[in-house]
Amino acid sequence: MQAWTRAGAPEGPPTGPGGDDPRREGELATRTRRKTARPPRFKVVLYNDDYTPMEFVVGILEQVFDKSPAEATQIMLHVHRNGTGIAGIYVLEVAETKVATVHKLAEERGHPLRSGVEPE
Ligand code: TYC
Fold first, then answer.
1. C-beta neighbour count of 12 within 10 angstroms
2. What is the pLDDT of residues 105-114, one digit of tens each?
3. Closest ligand 1 atom, CA of 77?
4. Rounded CA gap, 39 and 17, in Å?
5. pLDDT of 84 over the 80 cut
6. pLDDT tens digit string along 31-75?
7. Are residues 4 and 38 in contact, defined by beta-carbon separation less than 8 angstroms?
8. Sign of the dihedral through C-alpha 72, 74, 79, 81
9. Could you tell me the distance, in angstroms and rounded to a whole number, from the CA of residue 77 to the centre of ligand 1?
10. At 76, which helix (H) or strand (E)?
11. Is the confidence at residue 1, as pLDDT, over 50?
C-alpha cells in the first residue's frame, strides 16, 4: 500500500485552538489527523524561451490548464519576466499528461515551449 493511501496519517501540527500556546493548554484541539487520505500533488511548471509566441502560451494555459483569459495572460507574463511559473497543480498522472500535451501541441506548431513536473 502506498503511504498516502493510509487514512488518518498525521498532517502537520495540531489545528486546535492555541496550537503550542501554553496559555491555552487544556482547550480541546479540533482535529490532529485528516479524515481522508490526500495523494501528493505536483506542480506543472512552464519555462520561458525566446521564441514561443505569447499568444500561443496564453492559448495553452486556457485550453490545457482551464485558465481564464485574464489568468492565462498573468501566468504567461510571469513566466516571461521570471523564467518559470506554475500552470497548475495536479496528482502525478494528470500533471504528466498535461506536460505531454503541452509538448505535443508546441511541437506540432514548431515552438520550443517546455514544461515540467515538480513536487508541490
Ligand atoms: N518569452 C516569449 C516571447 O517573448 C513568451 C513566452 C512566455 C514563452 C512564456 C514561453 O513559457 C513561456 N515571445
1. 7
2. 999 999 999 9
3. 7
4. 27
5. yes
6. 777 888 899 999 999 999 999 999 999 999 999 999 999 999 999
7. yes
8. positive
9. 8
10. helix 69-82
11. no
Which residue in this structure is represented by grid cell 515538480?
118
Ligand 1 atom closest to the Cα of residue 51 is 13
Taking the centre of ligand 1 as the mean of its atom positions, its distance from the CA of residue 89, in whole angstroms, is 20
Ligand 1 atom nearest to CA at 52: 8
Q: Which residues line ligand 1 (CB under 6 A)?
A: 46-50, 52-54, 57, 76, 79-80, 113
Pick the atom of ligand 1 nearest to 79's CA: 9
Which domains, ranges and CATH numbers included, belong to the chain?
Answer: 41-119 (3.30.1390.10)
Question: Residue 87 Cα, ligand 1 centroid: separation in angstroms?
Answer: 13
Does residue 47 contact residue 116 with C-beta atoms inside 8 Å?
yes
Q: What's the pLDDT at 26?
A: 65
Sequence-ordered alpha helix ranges (H) in 9-115: 54-63, 69-82, 92-109
